[in-house]
Amino acid sequence: MTQDLRPPWDEDPDDLYEHAPCGYLTTLPDGTIVRVNQTFLSWTGYARGELVGHRRFRDLLTSGGQIYHETHYAPLLRMQDEVHELAFDLVCADGRQLPLLVNSVLARGDTGQPRAIRTTVFNATERRQYEKELLLARQIAEASERRVRVLQQIVADLAAAPTEAEVAEAVVRAPESAFGAASSSIYLVDDERDVIYAVASTDPTTGNWDDMPRTSERAVARVAERGDLHVVGSVAEARKHFPDLVENMRRSGRNTVVLLPLTTGPTDEHSTLETLGVLAFSFKGERKLTDGELRVVRLLGQQSGQALDRARLYDELRRREDRARFLAETTRSLDELHRLLPRTRRLIDRVVPEIADWAEIRLQVGTPPLVEQGGGPRPDEELLTQRLGKVAASGEPVFAAEGDQLDCSVLPLTARGLVLGTLALRMTTNRRGIAAEQAFLVELADRAGLALENARLYEQERQIARTLQRSLLAGDLPGGDSRFAVETHYQAAAHDLEVGGDWFDAFMITKDKLAVVVGDVVGRGIEAATTMGQLRSAVRALASNATGPAELIGGLDRFVERVESARMATVAYVEVDLADGEIVYSCAGHLPPLLQEPAGSPEYLLQGRSAPLGSKAGDKVRTEHRRRLPAGSRMLLYTDGLIERRTRPIDKGFELLAREYARRRDAPLQGLAATLADTLVGRDHSDDVCMLCLTLGTEERIERTIGADRMQIALLRADLRAWLVAHEIEPECRDAVLLACSEAVANAIEHGYRDDPFGMIDVVATATADAVEVRVTDRGTWRGAVSDVARGRGLQLIRESMDQVLFDRSDGTTVTMRRSRREAG
Amino acid sequence: MEYTRGGRPVPRGDLERWVTFSKFGDAELVSLTGEIDLANAPEIGKAIVQRIEKAGKVLIDLTTVSFLDSAGVRLLDALIGDLNDHGTPTRLVVGATGAARMTLQLCAFREDVLATDLDRAAAEISS
């Protein structure tokens, strides 16, 4: 018995057709379905009766498919009689779309007329799915590539960002370009203050920008603490985990927030990661981040963290460099000023505003203490006083702390273990790196303390030198002798220099011999002042009736061998025989005296010259020169400060001095030296000036010219008085002449020159055995009789005190007054 | 620093060189010294007026004045006038000879306010 096996080829052709693994359709050339197999019906859900004879193939297609049918399928089929693998979406009975691949063959009749179209239909659902996946995968790959590109760009930006601020700026832009975030913000961790603070945001209207403690419950602080990425997927999630976000998310319409810690440290060891900041970015609408995106986000966190770390190191380095430079420059700048007050002022000016908005230095030197401050506003006085006292007492600095009411740091200024004073300051901003900042302030205070202590010592030494110099220069000079008069003037350099070594002296060798000397010691300060004193004493000791100037200078040379600091000092030394008016002079390297005889031009005394004291290379043969001077001669001894200017050759200086001296030949002796110094060097002089002016003998007639200045009347009177005394005019007559002359000059000033402050008044007085005659001349304007009561009294005094008074008003006013030397009537 | 023997033009504001104030018994004593002239009289006058405005008695001592010009006389004249108007007993003490006496005499200054001795002048205005 055999069981018949049905061979495959023996299959029922109908069944094969109906249940083939593909759909079969036969249609008329116009597409009307005439035959369809069961497979097709099963796939599409149509009943045979619905299709056959009723529908065209194209009627089953989607509208897009129908157009494609029209434009491609039908024309191709007509031209080629067959089409292959055309994709259509068919609308099933239940409205579902079924992706199909369609092959068709056009059968023609004997005459070539289209007879029927046979179509096989393959279900392409899975293939289409696969294609879609491929497309999606490509899109994902592209998105990922775009993110990587964005990330690369950011990494490049980060590498080029040298400061924390620039890193923050680069990072905060990343989420928008890489992930399409709506906005993002960056927060940084401040280790020293133990807070997290916001630094940048692409949308400052969102979020909370207050500093938060690192232990805060806020989402940013929590994520920073955990050091791991956190995605808040929805408002509901936020409500659950981070309630502080809810309000902001709602207000700004955000549904997803990503909190990314910015970390640094080895990537493999999670435990040692340090969180330097947090990048927060958010999306409108709920946004799912793919694994790939999350990986990129994490990478961004690491890259940013490293960049921040690097920038912090740079920042730190730069700040340290800045601080070092500031300290060096401050020290150098303080060195430029020697005196205490300017140096203190300079320190304040360095500190404000560069590192502090207010600063005060208080130095316990003298009472009251020296206080200098700059900037503002001043802090609370009471709190400050307390802190100042505490620091001064302990010698330890007190720094402004967080939440400090005073908000000022106070540092002791110390030198050699003693607290000299305090430096108080309020820093401009709350800087990072408080420990480094404090170290910097301590170093600043150390340097300031030393610089100010040096200035204080300098000040002390300077004071001693000044006192010494003053005591030497202001000692008693001979006077009260009608045969001569000495006038001296000393002015120190304007620019706070140490005392110089310029000096003068005048003394009687015998009762008929006067010595005058002006000298200049090399150097400045206390040593120069001391040397000057020694030299002055040596001159006095060496001078005697028997030795002349040359021998005296030789003696000084030997003195200098023992007193090294006097080497190369210069001296102009003159001895005057008051009995016969003969002078002998010698100049050791010093500028030549300037002589003005009553008649003629001024001349420099150029003989008797030799090298400075103790000179090793110069001409040490000491010589002297002798000359007889007529009564009324004036001689000026001076130091180089009077004529030397950096801006002009010394010849010009000599010329100028001679000219100005000649111009004042008729000026009263009193005030002459000071006036000359004013004219030649002014107030802004860089060197000391020392002058000695000697007038010899008694002039037969005195001629003076003064400016129309009431201050000058007393100077004129002094000369006139000396002249009257020298001529042994009786006191009563003398007083009368002085009064009348004063009134006449006052009259010229107040009346004749009332509108001309530059007018000049000439006064000439002559004395005979019988009488004194004085003539006062001005070139002012005569304005008619004097009506002023006060001036009227002046004129009355002139008339009452003199015997004869004559007014001549032909050219200005000349008053000629005469008083008999005998008892007036 | 600057110092000059013989002097520069008279510095202003340095009035103690010419005028000082003290008490002599119950009287305000104004001591003038040196040269009083056009250059310093106005400033000296101001200083004195400020000081003696409320004084009950005033003594002005001129014994060490070495020069007095018409501006000085004007100053004294105004002072005495004002003090008189206020009924304040006043004396000018001035040496019997000397520059100040000469000037005052030449101006015919009121003799009744002049005295030559400080003690006597003080006694006069006390009685």
UniProtKB/TrEMBL annotation, chain B:
Sequence ranges assigned to domain STAS in this UniProt record: 29-127
Record Pfam families: STAS
Domain of life where this protein originates: Bacteria
CDD domains cross-referenced by the UniProt entry: STAS_anti-anti-sigma_factors
InterPro entries: STAS_dom, STAS_dom_sf
Protein name, UniProt field: STAS domain-containing protein
